[in-house]
UniProtKB/TrEMBL annotation:
Belongs to the AlaDH/PNT family. Residues 4-137 form the Alanine dehydrogenase/pyridine nucleotide transhydrogenase N-terminal domain. GO terms for cellular component: plasma membrane. GO terms for biological process: L-alanine catabolic process. This is Alanine dehydrogenase. Keywords: NAD, Nucleotide-binding, Oxidoreductase. It catalyses: L-alanine + NAD(+) + H2O = pyruvate + NH4(+) + NADH + H(+). Residues 149-297 form the Alanine dehydrogenase/pyridine nucleotide transhydrogenase NAD(H)-binding domain. The active site is at H96, D270. It comes from Thermoflexibacter ruber. Transmembrane segments: none annotated. Gene3D superfamilies: NAD(P)-binding Rossmann-like Domain. Substrate binds at R15, K75. InterPro entries: Ala_DH (IPR008141), Ala_DH/PNT_CS2 (IPR008143), AlaDH/PNT_CS1 (IPR008142), AlaDH/PNT_N (IPR007886), AlaDH/PNT_NAD(H)-bd (IPR007698), NAD(P)-bd_dom_sf (IPR036291).
């Protein structure tokens, strides 16, 4: 198969979808790999390194999209890329359709095959292509939160761990999945008082077992959230209903309960955000303030630490990229239930229920497009 890797163009998106090691694995199996010049540069990979393993370098994104049967990307296509995508082309990347009606319609119109990293799912219901980036974003959310709590950038002016004789900060984490677990470990390690909320009691039991003593687990409910936010310094939004819009757990009217300078990091922003007042921001301009509460809502947090994120992401995606390249998407999806669940929009049809529901669009059973 002809595989194309364009350079990412989202704001401060420094990751690349395939490393030279990944290109090597594909070439070794007889596939042709085209990489846009400079695509790996910000992750530390030169054009020369791709060439050494037999990949070919192309000058522009258009050339890559024109020639490739499968495009492997990191972030969802953005407007300049919509028209580059061809009918029947397989596009394997994060899409997060439930957070963008415009993207959903653009991909329906493209007639391409959109296989979304974030909904590829293992039989145990884990999300293998989201996990590595959730690990990164979870850890980063505490770093970012700590930074924006500083007074000169409008935070409360509190150190997460306090110092001897002074209380540590209170950190509230909504959602005890991958992002939430990694955020809790980091915040606890810095010495903060951490409250971790989830709606799953089995999950809370498990977390209670593995977390250090300065992490308390609490059932997530509107009432409990209101009690907590009155004393929170940093709030991290980390909930997920796979493929669907995130539930709004903190509404606009709840901001009045918070201290001025509280920081809210909405990691779930890529699924629309779990705070009513969240709107996507960029690494260039990551925060804004509403009612004295600092909001950080960057939708591609891992893009800022590409040396870690590119390798973590491609470790997880490569086995699936190989299956798709070896077998084509239809056969690969028939043989792998994991990949089948990644199909979101195929040849103009929405085949993922959460996406159809998010935008009130007709839903087509995925079996219909596999035939
Ligand atoms: N902004 C960014 O750069 C990035 C964003 N993400 C996003 O972070 C979000 C979380 O991802 P993961 O941790 O991997 O998901 P996960 O599926 O591992 O965890 C989500 C957790 O939320 C819980 N939950 C659902 N509804 C809840 C509620 N009402 N209250 C409390 N908990 C609730 C679930 O029980 C589950 O434990 C996703 O939207 C993901 O796309 C992930 C990586 C990067
Ligand atoms: C998960 C995601 O949206 C990201 O890594 O950018
Ligand atoms: Mg207030």
């Amino acid at each position: 198969m002809i595989v194309g890797v364009p350079k990412e163009i989202k704001n401060n998106e420094n990751r690349v979808a395939l490393t030279p090691a990944g290109a090597d694995e594909l070439v070794e199996r007889g596939h042709t790999v085209y990489v846009q010049t400079g695509a790996g540069e910000n992750s530390g990979f030169t054009d020369e390194e791709y060439k050494e393993v037999g990949a070919e370098i192309l000058a522009t994104a258009k050339e890559v999209f024109d020639i490739a049967e499968m495009i492997v990307k990191v972030k969802e296509p953005i407007e300049q890329e919509y028209d580059l995508i061809k009918p029947n082309q397989l596009v394997f990347t994060y899409f997060h359709f439930a957070s963008s009606e415009e993207l959903t319609h653009a991909m329906i119109k493209s007639n391409a095959v959109c296989l979304a990293y974030e909904t590829v799912e293992r039989p145990d219901r884990s999300l293998p292509l989201l996990i590595p980036m959730s690990e990164v974003a979870g850890r980063m959310s505490v770093q970012q939160g700590a930074k924006y709590l500083e007074k000169p950038i409008k935070g409360r002016g509190i150190l997460l761990g306090g110092v001897p004789g002074v209380k540590a900060a209170n950190v509230l984490i909504l959602g005890g999945g991958i992002v939430g677990t990694h955020a809790a470990k980091m915040a606890a390690g810095l010495g903060a008082n951490v409250t971790l909320m989830d709606i799953s009691l089995p999950r809370l039991r498990q977390l209670d077992d593995i977390m250090p003593a300065n992490v308390t687990t609490v059932m997530s409910s509107r009432y409990n959230i209101i009690q907590e936010i009155k004393q929170s310094d940093l709030i991290i939004g980390a909930v997920l209903i796979p493929g669907a819009k995130a539930p709004k757990l903190i509404t606009r009217d709840m901001l009045k309960y918070m201290h001025a300078g509280t920081v809210m990091v909405d990691v779930a922003i890529d699924q629309g955000g779990c705070f009513e007042t969240s709107r996507p921001t960029t690494h260039e301009n990551p925060t804004y303030i509403i009612d004295d509460v600092v909001h950080y809502c960057v939708a591609n947090m891992p893009g800022a630490v590409p040396y870690t994120s590119t390798v973590a992401l491609t470790n997880a995606t490569l086995p699936y990229v190989i299956q798709l390249a070896n077998n084509g998407w239809r056969k690969a999806c028939k043989e792998s239930k994991d990949l089948l669940l990644g199909l979101n929009v195929v040849n103009g049809k929405v085949v993922y229920k959460g996406v159809a529901e998010a935008w009130n669009l007709p839903y087509t059973e995925v079996s219909e497009v596999l035939a």
